[in-house]
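Complex 1287.
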Amino acid sequence: MTLILRLALALMLLGPGPVLAQDLQPALQAEAERVERASRRHVEEVLETLAANGSPNLQPFLEAWQDKGVVRAEDGLFYYGQREGDVWALTDIDSGAEAGTVDRRAARQLKPNAGVRGVIAAALVQFQLSDPRPGARRAALASLERDPDAALLPALRASIEDEPDPAIRALKTDLERRLTARFGEDPAARIAAIDRLGASVQDRAVLSRILATDRIVAEGGAAPEGAIVAGPSDLDEAERLALLVEAGLAPAPVTRMARDMALTVAITDGMVAGRPVATLESEAARWEAYEALAAGGAARPRPAEAAIAEALASHAVLDIYREADAGVIAAAEAASAAQSARLARHGAVDLGLDALSLASIYFLAAIGLAVTFGVMGVINMAHGEFIMIGAYTGYVVQTIIPDYTLSLIVALPLAFCTAGLAGVALERLVIRHLMHRPLETLLATFGISVALQQIAKNVFGTQARPLTSPDWLAGSWIISDAISISWIRVAIFVLALVFLAAIVALLRRTRLGLEVRAVTQNPGMAASMGIDPGRIGMLTFGLGSGIAGVAGVAIGLYAQVTSEMGAGYIVQSFMTVVVGGVGSVFGTLAGAGLIGGLQKGIEWLNPSNTLAAQTFMILFIIAFIQIRPRGIVPQKGRFAQ
Amino acid sequence: MTRTPLIRRPDVIAVLSCLAVLTLGATLMAEAGLISTSFVKTLGKTLCLCLAAVAMDLVWGYTGILSLGHMAFFGIGGYAIGMWLMRARTEDVVAAQLAQRPLPPTPAEVDQAAATQIFGVVGSDTFPWMWVFADMLWVQLLAVVLVPGLLALVFGWLAFRSRVTGVYLSILTQAGTLALSLWLFQNDSGLRGNNGLSGLQNIPGLTHVPQSTLSLWFLWASAAALGGFYVLARWTVAARFGSALRAIRDDEARLRFLGYDVEGFKLVVFTGTSMACGVAGALYYPQAGIVNPAEIAPIASIYLAVWVAIGGRGHLWGAILGAAAVSLLSSWFTGGGAPDIDLGVYVIRWTDWWLVLLGLGFVAVTLLAPQGLAGLVLRLARRRPEAPARTLEAARAEPGE
Amino acid sequence: MSALLEVSGVSKSFDGFKAIDGLSFAIGEPEMRAVIGPNGAGKTTFMDLVTGKTRPDSGTIRWGERILDLTRLSESRIAREGIGRKFQKPTVFEDQSVWENLALALRAVRRPLRVLARAGADPERIPALAADVGLKGALDRRAGELSHGQKQWLEIGMLLASEPRLLLVDEPAAGMTPSEREKTTTILREAAKTRAVVVVEHDMEFVRRLNCRVTVLHEGRVLAEGSLDHVTADPQVIDVYLGRG
Ligand SMILES: Nc1ncnc2c1ncn2[C@@H]1O[C@H](COP(=O)(O)OP(=O)(O)O)[C@@H](O)[C@H]1O
Ligand SMILES: [Mg+2]
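Predicted structure with adenosine-5'-diphosphate bound:
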């Protein structure tokens, strides 16, 4: 691509300083025919001549040409042409002055084909690298990134010095480093560039380009002269054999299909090779018949197994680096290893953040359950439906208040109230009457859960309802290319912290909290000291359900609102409570952390299969309960049983 | 106490004669064309559910273990028999197709074609390891009882050993059930993921028998299984064993201090009933035609508990009442049998509102009639000794008039 | 006479509170022993330790000729070894008849599958046992319908039915009328003729009527041991019982 080099030189000579007003039209006229009917074959030559002219009008002309914005009028001159109805509005190429209009048939539009446009575009890049418009410079860089070209390296380097915009300058330096790493003039320069490569996706792509390999069949097992072997290929025997057969280095085996074809063709009067067709109902019988056919010359004989084994043993299939310089390869390998290690570290941090946000969700979903379970000793199977009630409350609020921020501010306390009231109602109407019958409470609340779910389905329909988050919660907090966390999850984490603090403060600092703790630890004693367990039960139920409602809004923001959403969290919530230890806020926190971390951890080990991850997690929890039947933070005292 | 021989106990007589009447009646009516094949299947399926409910009553009503996983054993029974049904039948069909080719098919070809047919939906063309013996009926019949039994044994041993009781145990069984169903939902579980096993109503070797006849055979088999299991369950809860079970329910610590190995008893009941559920499932799914992981989800097991609670715990026959009543009502309501109620502003469609009714109705039963339907029946029966007397008096009085 | 039960140096603390503190205790067969002590002395906890309900932090509990270590056995195994226990609060199976309660307790195989197969258990003995504890006419009644005293006797009857070698009885006379106490004393004395019986009791009068060796517990330790007259003369015991009165 000497053309591009020369174009670049021309540009450099011109520089950004005062420009000789050199007209382009004469140069165009000199090449008029080849410009008008440009072809991929000679367009480079044409461009070269045009560049030699040194006119500053070349770049706009090329851009217009590429965009089919150039016409040739009947006078043979080229103009910029704008189609206006039945006429062309012409503009002079050199002066930029309007040149009147001509009938649309009086001028011919230049329509360069795709190949020609490609060459023009490449030539344009170097102009654009120094274009006064920053947008154009960025576009040029992007184009060069997509289509890296060793020949443009000097132009790129030259443009760095005078780059006024520091951001674009950084982009240019980065790109220069990548291009040097791949196309640099000598290995030392390339290695230096490789060593300076960063962690961006593009930098990693460069490394993998340098480390690309080809798969070759090595006759006699040795690599060809000068090739650097990356290693033996990871193909299995059949695949290697296929390659060897293709290269003519091994005899082709007879496939089962070919065998069956030969046998079928050879059927005459129900007999093949002297055997009745009906006897060919096993592999062995078919091979025998085939060999009989082959012996009679009616089919290609099977190659000896030994010959195939011999071919496989004596030839190797190797992966060979495309890169020829060992030093460069070594540097790239080292850089790539460092990258992988760094990526793994960042991946671990990202995983940790993921686990943290999952744990916050579980905490929010489970803390209400933990409180009610701890105080009343009953399992509320309808807890998941309180989550759902909260989420639908958020949805309804959003349909009334169109502003997402405002509706969220309204929805959170409202969801707390609706779900809380539902909880109080459930406690007064059902649970209170099933005192000391925990298993029946479990089933009765299940009945409530079924009814609530179905009611929600009847009212809101079966399709998922969106709960849109305000703009300031959309998107992610991107910490590095491997670490990012969506703002909603950050918000949920904060929400979980707020609720943790609020509940701890409530339990530790208020009279109500004291009474709640008393009832949790010893209901009989608490009752005899004048604490009304009924009132405490009702209040804690309201509180626990209210928190579930808030959790519902939070969950609805990043998942969708359906009548079944609560059911998806209920088992996890139970697990969280049971693993954490009943009646303890910090136990629930620990349980949520353990379960969230575990789930993410298992998913990370087996990313393709989240179902299996959940299965394993539950099995782990069952095992965990073997070791600590009372949870991480066990309840203490004589009445714990 | 075993003072009356088992077979003369009134409840055993009642259950067995009801079953006899039901099967005979259904057979006659089906032959006369009065009831459809699908209704016969509904009856047969209901009997299987009743069997599971009796097992649940043993576990929960008698022993006090609210297992939220017994329908999983039921489903496993279905899967175990379904594997044979599906594989044997597919192989028959495939072999017939391959026989059209010029060369007679080899066993490997049949195998592969059958595997492709069965596992194409999950992108595989080989039988997973657990299907190795699926073409042998006796292996799968063994699996119907052994797989649920083994699972229950391991799970129960772990759970009971660590003294997990009450709601904790319920949650643990629910979690275990969830784990199982999630695992089955995967495509590479080897059991066709969420597609489940289908076409189970076609019995290999009996394809010439019409479904109307097959459905009757299954009805008889289901009735026989229910009757047999009822007698077995009654025998189990009679005498000291049953007494020990109820003692576990009421105060297991006390029973321990009497020298009973409570965990062992629980394990026997848990495992035994899981096997019964496996058998029930193996009878149910050939009538239903399809088994999939959704059937194993915890909610199915919770419904089982609900049936038993509605029927009344601790009587065995109460469980049958509950399961039969709720599941028949449920198919009546959801099948569009119940007339919609037009309120003018809103039409109550029972297909939509049945679950609401069931859920709230169940809460009402728990609150107002903890003894369930059985309690109701017993209260009526306790009043009866007077009733015959009164009719006798009436009879005596009549000639005089 | 070698000891049937030998508790040595046993300690148990709950959340740092020492309920039993280096307790040693031995009883032979047949023998009747009363254990007294103020509330919270650790009497019930002592029984919990022997019957396997609670595991000691340290110390050993040896049992029988084969010198089994009870701290390693499960509650049910300990019961099968021949240690019967009556709880402070009467605990019978309220939902079952007196007959069924006694049948459950009868000395017979306890293995689940054997029980299922109807092995063991000789129901002939049930009426006689019921007669022993004065419940002859109540065999078919639900245990839940019995009076408090009858429940206590039923529980003792269940203990006798299981024919233990050691009987641990926690406050049997609590809540009984004087005539019921009389009867309880008779039953216990009868039982102690052929086996070891440990009775925990508050009521000195009741203990006096038992007429046996007395062990005084205080703060998880043995304070004194000997005849009732001997221990009531002990200044330490007087201090503990009366000093705080
Ligand atoms: N499981 C337990 N947890 C905490 N403390 C206990 C437990 N069991 C007993 N204690 C304490 O040990 C002490 C002794 O109790 P106990 O043996 O019941 O005394 P008593 O001699 O009145 O029967 C009491 O202070 C009691 O509170
Ligand atoms: Mg005490």
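The first strand of chain A starts at residue 70 and ends at 73.
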